[in-house]
Design brief:
2 copies of one chain form a homodimer. Chain A is α+β, with helices and mostly antiparallel strands. In chain A, strands 1, 2, 3, 4, 5, 6, 7, 8 and 9 form a 9-stranded antiparallel β-sheet that branches. In chain A, strands 10-11-12 form a 3-stranded antiparallel β-sheet. The first copy, chain A, has a two-stranded antiparallel ribbon with strand order 13-14. In chain A, helix 5 crosses helix 16. In chain A, a hairpin with a 5-residue loop joins strand 11 and strand 12. The first copy, chain A, is built from 16 helices and 14 strands. Helix content of chain A is 39%, strand content 18%.
Chain lengths: 518, 518
């Protein structure tokens, strides 16, 4: 019989996570207006919603076979749908409905039977075809949806049907959005609230990545959610629960998964090399906010374990090997990940060192610090081209934005060097730019690290602000300005329009505004 | 302010009906086998089910996107469906299923999206398209189905899914079928049990006509159900409740509806001239079985009221007018209804006279008796052709089977005359034959009235027996041998395969067997 590993606190984590299960709040949301999608080239995804009538007029409208309508809830929420049907005219048969919940106008306008060509499960789309036997009567769908728009198609009915009431019983761990700081300008306040609504809608039983798709708890997303949460809802219980669930789902080697599934029972999801290394920083952030040293002490060995496992990815020079194993996410793009991962490892080691110190483990703290310096030095020595102010990644010495950003965030460079690097990479048209909001966040942080507050502010407006200008009231999973139908899943219908990793402006904009105006 | 009419006992009827609301029984039914539809010209509707494997093997079979299966429950039941899904392989997405409950092989084999062309609501078909978010997990559909077969199509799934368990929670006011009389031959015993299963599946909150379609309480069906019930389940409470609901839904003129809807609240359905006249016989049957004179006394005025209302349909000769108003059902066929309705009215008046006598209302009893004789005499004098042994109906003197049967059942003719009439009509190839099981029942009764026991037995075997030989375990709404796709709704998919008005063999076959062997 082998002794239990020091990092193995899985059963404690699971029990504590279960004790922290939140009671969800529920509230009623009713449609604001009947709307109609309009195809127009200047709208995002060439589709926008036009108001047709106030929602109150719906109850007096009669729908026959083949007729349909779309309502706008006025706000994106997560919840369950209930329709109250009233028959009009002859009424001797059940009514058959197709009900589609949609986050985006394009999604509400689509014919999912013919338009969908995504490579993920069609079941991520939020439509059902059901029969309602008794009219007047209610149709309550059991599924949880993420939606701003609701489309109802009457596939058949005895004669006509009216929709007396439409209600979404919204659900989340929190309901009301903390207000945006007063001093922010109007555009920023909108961005702030959009970020918090994104976060709020993802605050379910756990911190989900996207309440439409894929409803999973990802460590990379969690770290960013935790940052926005700390300056808004301050639901540290939910952050802790989520982190504990990731810890509880570690494999027998102590590898923290990139994500977990939590229903019907906890299950290890994808292994993700970079996310595992973000376990230490996420833990450190939480402990610094709550002061919970006991949690730090319990989870520190698991955080350290991620680096023991990671070490085999380094070559003798202390550099991430070209043939590093496993899925290294960083961003959704095809670029060499060596220096991005190297920078991220340094970032993580520094955090791990601080955690060790907090736990009174000074020897370990020094060891982690030394390792951080060794990796930082290797990166500077072997991959930094000071004359070009660029970090070059991999055997082909590629230049990517992520390859600059993560070393900067890892403290490999001084703020001045960082500024030069960020200005230099901007002059490299071939350098792979950040694609996801997740990577855009890290660019925003790198700008701030480098003292480039104006660039950070411009990015905020050009990226998150652009989504708001396109009508977003939650931030999207995928947004590359000008590329309306980009999707990692071969169909933008599958993209999540409310995605945790986009919620970070709320975490930084108050500080950034002060820095800008200092 | 007008005094309450003597027939108006609606609020008493409603209260008493509510008090008699049955507690439904629930039981679990699991599939017997995985089956596959086979098109073959000699099967009913050119489709029969072939066993593929025992149902137990299902849980080990993996289904991917686009794959499907059909199971046979082994018995037709009414209930709700629950599937237990187990993921196989990669499992990161919801699963989308189309679930179709079917009574008939042809229905299970159909593609409802392309094959359906009925003129009633498509929503009568028993299929839904739903998404199951969490695997492993259950999919419980809220709708109640009438089914023998269950088809599950996997529209998409992350990788594969197995169906760990499939359960139908059957529901009805009774569960177990009373056994067939021992002395009956095997074929008759099968017919008997099929009749009782038909009745059992219709015994819900009220006596429904068909648990798939149209789930309504019809007076004409109720009268036949009550007869089968009296020799089997003896759930007189449910018969009484159903009759009371029909009474409670009378209109302000005292017209008992042909049918009522009971959900979400009691509602007057179609007016049906002949069914309203069957109120008295149905009440008389019930009272004679239960001895409940109080019920007879309360409902007698309403039964009598139907004849007051009917009187305007008679001409000065006491014959049903050619231009009689309202929907006169009798049977689903286009034929002159004058003499059928005349015979039915006599049948009803004789019953009403007996009810009056039971209530101690001897003067009224004599009046009803006199009216019955007047109508019977008018029919004999003006519509009977004794030399041809035929009753001739309407201005064109049409000959139909229904036009002979109902006067016979009304006691207009002696048994000997009746026999001659039934033998004579059989020699009239153009005479409209009975179409529905409802009318076939009345033919069976007419044969018995005429002492034609052999013909009754032959009809039993040729009609209900044929359904059994075609694989029925409940009797159908529509059955005309040789006309497999006949439907009053332009699509046999809409036909109900378990329909109350087909359940009558159980009521007569024990007596008939004794008479045959006397």
């Amino acid at each position: 019989m082998t002794a239990m590993k020091d990092w193995d606190c899985r059963s404690w984590c699971l029990a504590r996570a279960q004790a922290l299960k939140p009671a969800l709040k529920h509230w009623s949301v009713r449609p604001r207006a009947i709307v109609q999608p309009e195809r127009c080239p200047d709208a995002w995804q060439h589709c926008r919603m036009r108001d047709v009538a106030p929602a109150e007029t719906l109850r007096d409208r009669a729908f026959g076979k083949g007729e349909s309508f779309i309502v706008d809830l006025g706000e994106s929420v997560v919840g369950r749908i209930r329709l109250r049907l009233r028959p009009l005219g002859w009424n001797d048969s059940p009514c058959r409905l197709r009900i589609t919940a949609a986050e985006m106008p394009h999604e509400a306008a689509a014919n999912l039977e013919t338009d969908f060509h995504g490579c993920l499960s069609r079941a991520w789309m939020q439509d059902e075809t059901v029969n309602v036997d008794v009219l007047p009567g209610d149709c309550a769908l059991p599924r949880r949806y993420s939606l701003r728009y609701l489309k109802v198609e009457v596939l058949c009915v005895a004669e006509k049907v009216a929709f007396e009431d439409i209600e979404v019983i919204a659900e989340a761990a929190e309901r009301d959005l903390p207000p945006a700081p007063q001093e922010l300008p109007e555009e920023w306040r909108l961005i702030h609230q959009t970020a918090l609504r994104t976060l709020r809608n993802c605050m379910q039983d756990v911190m989900e990545d996207g309440p439409k798709r894929d409803r999973r708890l990802w460590l990379g997303d969690l770290r960013l959610q935790a940052r926005a949460n700390a300056v808004s809802f301050r639901r540290f219980d939910l952050i802790e629960r989520s982190l504990l669930l990731l810890a509880a789902a570690s494999d027998d080697d102590g590898r923290v998964p990139g994500c977990v599934f939590t229903e019907p029972h906890l299950r290890h999801g994808n292994d993700t090399v970079d996310y595992a290394l973000l376990f230490a920083p996420t833990l450190e952030d939480l402990v610094s906010q709550t002061g919970d040293r006991d949690l730090a002490q319990r989870l520190y060995p698991l955080a350290a374990r991620q680096h023991e496992l990671f070490r085999s990815q380094l070559n003798d020079d202390g550099l991430v090997r070209h043939d590093a194993q496993g899925w290294i996410f960083i961003d959704w793009a095809d670029f060499d990940r060596q220096t991005a991962l190297q920078g991220l490892a340094v970032y993580s080691l520094r955090s791990l060192a601080r955690l060790a110190r907090l736990c009174g483990l000074h020897e370990q703290a020094l060891r982690h610090q030394d390792e951080a310096e060794r990796l930082a030095a290797a990166l500077r020595r072997l991959r930094y081209a000071p004359e070009r102010h660029l970090v070059l990644s991999g055997p082909r010495r590629e230049v990517s934005w992520a390859g600059q950003i993560w070393p900067i965030l890892g403290g490999v460079f001084t703020p001045d060097e960082s500024r030069d690097i960020l200005l230099a990479v901007a002059r490299q048209p071939d350098a792979q730019r950040p694609v996801t909001p997740y990577m855009q966040h890290h660019l925003l942080e790198a700008y701030r690290h480098a003292g480039l507050h104006r660039q950070a502010a411009d990015l905020l407006s050009a990226y998150w602000g652009a989504m708001v200008r396109h009508g977003a009231d939650t931030f999207w999973e995928v947004f590359v300005p000008g590329d309306d139908f980009l999707s990692p899943y071969q169909d933008a219908l599958l993209n999540s329009a409310c995605h945790a990793w986009s919620c970070t402006p709320a975490a930084v904009m108050d500080d950034l505004w002060r820095q800008l105006n200092a």
